[in-house]
Every structure is written in C-alpha cells, then in structure tokens.
Amino acid sequence: MADKTITSFFDRYEDAADAVRRLEAAGIPHRDISLIANNEGERYSSHASRTWGEDSRFDDDDHDGAATGATVGTLAGGGAGLLAGLGMLAIPGFGPVVAAGWLVPTLIGAGAGAAIGGLGGSLVDAGVDEDDARAYAEGVRRGGALVTVRASESDVDRIVDILDDEGTVDFEERQSNWRSEGWTGGTSAGIPAAGMMSGRDAMAANTDKSGAASMANRDSLSGATGRDEVIPVVEEQLHVGKRDVSGGRVRIHSHVVERPVQEQVNLREERVHVERRPVDRALKDTDAAFRDRTIEAEERREQAVVSKEARVKEELVVRKDVEQRTETISDTVRSTEVNVEDERRDTLDKSGTKDRR
Q1: What is residue 55's predicted lDDT score, i.e. its pLDDT?
Q2: Which of 133, 215, 244, 342 pairs with 124 at a CA distance of 20 to 30 A?
C-alpha cells in the first residue's frame, strides 16, 4: 500500500526516462511509476507505442493503470518496462503529451478537458498539494516532464535518492522564475492561470481590475453616511529560511588488481660424481682389500620458498567538512503609503474681529 506520492520534474523527456530506468533497476514496481511529458510538435512521438484516447479501455480493478486486452503487458509498463507502454494523448486546453503509468486513466477519464482537471487533478487525487499540482501542470505545459512515484514509507528515502540525480530541476527556483515573469500559480478550475496568458494580456487584465476597484471605492464613498470606510495599510516582511539541497556526490570504489612481479634468489645445489681411474701398483696395507665397504654420498639442493605478506601502503580517508557561510539575500517588499488631501477651508469670518486692549 503506497503511503506517499513522490514527484520529480525534468526539463527533458530523456532525463525523465533515465530516472524511470534507474527506478526500475532499483526494483521499484512499474505499477507505482508514472511519466508524463510535453509532446508539442510531436517531438517525442517516436518513443510512443500507441495513442491514448477515449476508446482506451481500463479495468476498474487494475490498479496498475494497465489497458485491458492483448497488449496489457507492454502498454501499461509490465514486463518490458514502463517506457514500452508510452502513449500519445491530447488534453483539450492543455496540449499534446506522452504518458505512461498509473496516471494515464485519470488523464483520459472524466474532467480531463481542463489542465487542472487532467494532470493537476490527478496529482491532487494522488495526495499532491493543489498549489504544487498546478505548478507541476504548468511545468509540463511549458515543455517539461514529470515522474510520479507511489511509495511506501520505507521506500521514500531510497526513491528520493534515486530521483535526486542528474537532470532533476530545482522546482522551487523554477516557480520563482515563473512568478517573476507574471505567473501567479493558477486560479480555480476552468479559469486560466495568469501564467497561461501572454505578458501583455496579463498586464491588461491587472490594469482593468485595479481600475475597476478604484472606481468602485470612489463611488461607495459618495453620499456614504453613518459608516466607516477602512483602507488597510499593508507592509510586506521578508522571511529568509534554509533548505538542504544536494551539492553532488563523491563515490569511491576499491577493487583488487593483480600485477606480475619478479625477485631473484641464489640457490645452492650439491652433485655426487662417481668415476673410475685405471691404476697399476702394488697392494698396500692401507688399501683394506678383500672386505665389504659401503660409501654413501647424498646430493642436496636448495628450493625457492614463496610467501606473501599484505602490508598497508596508503589510507584513503573520506571526511565531510561543514562550513558556515553568511549569504545576503536581496529582495523587495511592498508597503502601502497613504496621502491625505484635506481640501476643507476655515469658515470663520475674520473681518469683524477687533483688537481688544
């Protein structure tokens, strides 16, 4: 039973596909992985094996999100891997995408006609915060790719570590960039987010709204009696927090290698030689003739004896140093300033005053 929904955003389909392969290689079930990527201009259509549509049939009891029929194993990510089941899909009002995995049925099902009803709504149903779901939908709309994994509590750290690799986008920073361009993070379902408008249209919409609000305030003040009109004076405060991000990994692998070596050693050998010498002389008493004798001589030689001793020649120490640094964060905050124009005159007639002595 999946307890968590983990999302990771990528700028390119290729990076997202690599992340899916790493997850599969780590033993994450295909049924718990989903991928969706922007397919504008059919740039990723060559990777798709089919087209998802309203005629695609799904088994209500199939929690893997697999299409029923003869191609269940390959199209839904079973057997040959999730990417083998990649299909094309056009979401009205959102654009063309390629998708595979357990999010596909909700993208095709009811409510898929709007961006938040399709991808964003599916993510919300899966437990993703609504604001985050809208942001991920906006990222895909802008050309990115999203990998979503259903995970048990025990697998969360492992999956995050796998996804936190090359190609992953710092999504909070990306959202900040979008907001600096005028994106507001979306509105209620069915109403386009400001980030989906062109810069000129968004500016015009903001101008029209601010102008109408100002006119309504002036109209409400005319002839108003017996009640107070309150204008709030607002000031923004800047709060700077901290978050832990990956700065890259250092991996050290040790392995055993063999190399040939040679050593020279001097070895001694003893050899026994027996030779006969012809002689012709008289027998001496010292010749010990006519009795049995045995003489033994043993040959000996030295052999090389090899032994090995393992000695530590060098040590590799891996250590993490922690440093503190002070970073100055510059930003702008807004506040409301109020200018009061008092056009009232002093109605006292001073012409009749006299200087009293």
Answers
A1: 58
A2: 244
Return the pLDDT at 20: 93
Q: Are 145 and 16 in contact (CB under 8 A)?
A: yes
Q: Please provide the size of the chain in residues.
A: 357
pLDDT of residue 351: 41
Q: How far is CA 238 from CA 62, 279, 331, in A?
A: 49, 123, 8
Give domain limits for the chain.
4-180
| Residue 150: partners with Cβ closer than 8 Å, 6 or more residues away | 2, 4, 5, 6, 32, 102, 126
Q: Which segments of the chain are extended strands (E)?
A: 4-10, 33-38, 50-51, 87-91, 95-101, 145-151
* Dihedral (Cα; 211, 212, 215, 221), 10-degree rounding: -130
Amino acid, single-letter form, for residue 236: E
Question: How far apart, in Å, are the Cα atoms of 316 and each of 252, 256, 257, 313, 320?
Answer: 9, 15, 17, 10, 13
Q: Which residues pair with 147 in a beta bridge?
A: 8, 35
Q: Rg of the chain over CA atoms, in angstroms? A: 43
Q: What is the pLDDT of residue 200?
A: 31
**Main-chain dihedrals φ then ψ at residue 109, nearest 5 degrees:** -75, -165
Does the predicted TM-score (pTM) go above 0.85? no
Residue 85 DSSP code: G
Predicted pLDDT at 223 = 45
CA 1/CA 29 separation, integer angstroms: 12
